[in-house]
Each structure stands twice: as structure tokens, then as C-alpha cells.
Amino acid sequence: MATKHVFDDPVGLVEKNLRGAVALHPGLRYYAPHKVVYNPSHPNSKVAVISGGGAGHEPAHGGFIGKGMLAACISGDIFASPSAAQICSGIDLINNDAGVIMVVNNYTGDCLHFGLAAEKARAARSGHPSKKGGVETVNVADDVAVGRKRGGLVGRRGLAGNIFTCKVLGAAAEKGLDVKTIADLGKHLMDNMVAVGTSLDHCHVPGRPKGDEERGALAADAAELGMGIHNEPGFKHMDKKPEPDVLIGEMLDFLLDPNDADRAYTPFDKDDAPVVFINNLGGMSNLEMNAITDVTLSLLESKWNLHPSRVYCSAYMTSLNAPGFGVSLVNQKRFEKNTGHSLLELLDAPTDAFSWAGVQTGWGSASGKPRDRKAEEQEAHDRLAAVKKAGGSVSGLHEASGNIGGPVNPDPELVRKGISAACAATVEIEPELTKFDTIVGDGDCGETLAQAGTAVKKALDAGQIPLDTAAGTLIAIGEVLESAMGGTSGAIYALFFAGLVQTLLSNPAGTKADAKVWGQAALGALENLGRYTPARPGDRTLVDALDPFCRALGAGKPLSEAVQASRSGAESTVKLTPRLGRATYVGSKDDGDMPPDPGAWGIWALTDGLRKGLGQ
User: Fold this and answer.
1) Which residues are catalytic?
2) Is 56 annotated for ligand binding?
3) Beta strand pairing status for 275-280 and 310-314?
């Protein structure tokens, strides 16, 4: 596997990639601060389909923006989800009165961040007369390799079916269908799509160690069946790669065998004429990809008596330059029977997204002048400003935090002390969390929480966190957390704070934010969080400490007892086995006694700091 890159330093690489993508399509624009590529001419009368995720999967998603496909995409760093704040800007930069559909791959970080953005978008649109369409998410979960047993609470991973989904739903939006109908089409598409991947090696991420052991390289003759798109190990390791027809034949067995109870997600009959969608993970030659297509079609005919109605093969969603490929099958007849819409018509509908079919129109005259990047950047800033001024802005929701209403803080100065002490606790606990996370994770939990606490304290000292109303305080803190706290934990914290705000605002304006109000808010926030993560007590996550804390407050217990409940929950995680996150696809080792879950321990430390600051 090649480990040499033109850009050895990943800093700035994602931004250069996005600017390069925009250069290929004259109608696109790029908002650099939040890594958003968008189509400013998307009509307000049609639903806006957006997607995104980590970089490293190009041409996804910048190459699939255009009429008949995506209205915008939002990029994170390499293999890392974009933040909810980035996604909110992406929504605001497009015309979206008819509604928004988010196409999201089924990975924890993506689901949480897009979920939080969806919550904010719904809140911002509520009661706004021009925003007639709703906001819906379609989770792409097409991978069968993990299976029902190993997938557990997490479910199937999202693979290249994401791009297939963007094409179908983009065509449905261009056709003028409404948000609910399009979201329903997406869900039926998942019911009728199966996919599996294989790779000859793991890819190498620029800037990371190049040694075989550090990057998890496969031996020269090895291959892995069931490979993901983030270097996750496959379901089946093969020390010696089988012959092509044997390898592809086993992949098709995973997709089509009706007797495999763990993976038989979609039935196919001989007359179903499926759609075949073959994806290059980035490092396969076109010579071999065409040959893979030929063998796939031959085996479909000879073993399964299936004759495809459409065949697609390209690099749709890559894993940098991984030498691998994926095969997806879609039962288009079953889709049409269940929805009343022709999948083939939606696939055949035109699009000017350059990575689907190439852009052939819209270039205009050759001016001989360089593109005015500064003017386009200003255009994006002006566009955001106009949306915020008109009302209903998602990315500007926090700007109303100072006068949002709801319960008032009886003692703003005490609130300041509580927040300040909680922030100090995150810094104090950092070494211990780092030690724990080095054993059971990737070692960044302590740093992440401390960075968030430091950022909140800085905003507090700068007067950027209003202290008069409870909801206003939390909105401002949530905005800081979104920017300063990355990864899955950042999204969970932000979603929890969003839930607190929603519940607080259900109280009349001017009432006092007393213990009863906060207890109700904690329970409401916990319930809201549960809609976006399957994590529950016993799964060895921060929920093991957060859940008992919220329930104790909701039951009217004093803050000190709620904090003790949080600690007990965190301590209980030493005996638990992780059930969520990417580790569920890889498995875990029995290393004897383990430290508490770092996230849960961080929740206890944070709540205990709050208790001390409030003098309880």
C-alpha cells in the first residue's frame, strides 16, 4: 500500500480539496470558515438535500452538489464528522423554505452532529411563516458485513450507498416531492439496499506514522472482507487472497443468501432486476474495477439468476487511496411496489453534479480573469447575515440567547460561580481522565473535556454567556461546547444542553429556575438525548453517570445526592463491557480490571465541580 503523498502535512489539505472541487463547477460556492460547499441557485420551492461527513471520502460529497442531487455538503477533517455548527451554516447558506433532508452515514459522530443540527433547524423554523417544509434525516445503513448480531445497538454501517441515496433523493427533490415523501423514499431505499466491501490493505492517512504496524497494514498476500470506510478491520481476515471469482462470489453470498439470518436484510427474486452499484475505495485501477464489474455480473447471472436493470461503477465514496472496492445491490422493483415511485426514473433523472455524470453547462464566457474568492467569501457572509436578520436562522440561534425568555436565574452571580467551578473541575481532572482513556480509548478524553471547560470559562470571563435567564445561559454554553469540544462526546454534551433549553422554555417567562424546574429540565434533556444515541446505563459510556444524575434531580433529590448518584454510576463502569462506538465492530480484549469509563468519570467530576461552586 502506498504511504507516499504529495501533501505529507494534513494541515490545510481539506480546505485545498474543497476549493479544488468548487473550481470544477462554476455554480458552486465555498464557505471556508465551516468547510461548506453549496449551490446558491438551489430554488426555494424545492426541498434541499444535504449531506457530508469526514474528509478522505472524495469525491463525496463536494462532487455530488448540483441540480438534481445535493444542495450543499459539509466536510469535517479526515475521517471526522463535521460539527453541528458547521452543519447549521450549511443549512443557512442554501434556500430551504421547502424543507431540508439530511443524508447521514450511520456512524456515531455523524448521527449525533447532524441530529443536533436537525434539532436546531426545527427550533429555528418553528413558527416562521416562510419555512413551510420540515427537517428530516435519512440514515444510510447499508453494510451487511457486521450483521445483526455484531451490529447490536449501533446497527449497520453506512458505505457507498450514501451517494446512491443522495442521487435518488436529490432527483425526488428536483421532481418537486415534499419533505415527508422524500424522507419516506430514503427509508424504503435502506430497506431495499445491501452492501459489502473488501480491501487488500488499509489506507494511510497523511501525517500519521507510515510503519506497517502503526497503520495496521495487511500482509502482501492478505485481504479483508467486510472492510469499512475508516480503516476499520474487516469481518473476515484472509491470509491469502482468494481468486477474484471466489472473493466476489463470497461477497455476493453475504448480500443474497436468504438462509443467512444474520445478513439477509433484503430479499431478491429472479425477476427483480436489481441495480448494481460498485464503488472504488480509491486505490483500485480502472482496469481492475471494470473486471470486477464483469465478474460480479457474471456471478449474479450464473449463480443467482439475476439480471441487473442498471449498473454503476466508479469512485463514489473512497477511503483515501485504499486498494479496495464495495458491491451494493438494490431491489428496485420492491422499492417501487412499496413507494409507488420508480427508482429507475429517479436514477435516470439528469444532474449536473460533476462526479456523477460530469458538468457540461454553465461555464459562461472565458473572461481570462481569476476567480474572485474574496467576493464569494463576502457573498457567503452577506447571505448568512441576511438570513439572521430575516429570522429563522439556524447558525444564528445563539445570538438570541440574551433575551430568549423562559425561567430566570434567581442569583446570576451564584450561576457564575457554579459555571466557573465546573470549568475548573474539568482542568483538574484532565490527567486522571487522560490516564484512563489511554488504557481504554485513544487518550484524548481528558484533553477534550479540559479544552471545553477552558473555552467556557474564557467566554464567561468575556461576558459572552448571559446569566439572567437559564435558557440563555445554556444556549451560550452549548455554542461554546460545539466549537471547543469535538468528537462524539462533544455532540452528546451539545445535544444534552439543547434538550435542557427546550424543556426550560416550556416554562412561563419570568418564573424562577428553582430545583424543581432544573429537575424537570434534566429529565427532558435525558429523554431528548436518548433519541440520538442508543447509549443507556450499562453500556459503559458517559450515560452511566449522566442518567442517574438526571433522574435523581428529577425525583427532587438535592444536588449533592444527584452528584453522588453520578459517581456511583461512573464507578459501576469498571465492571462493564463497551457496547457502543466503533469498538463494537472490532471486538474487545479481556484485560482484567479496567478503569472507569473516562466519559462517565468526567461527568461526575463536572457535576461535582458545579456542586462545589454552588456551595452545596
Assistant:
1) 230
2) yes
3) parallel
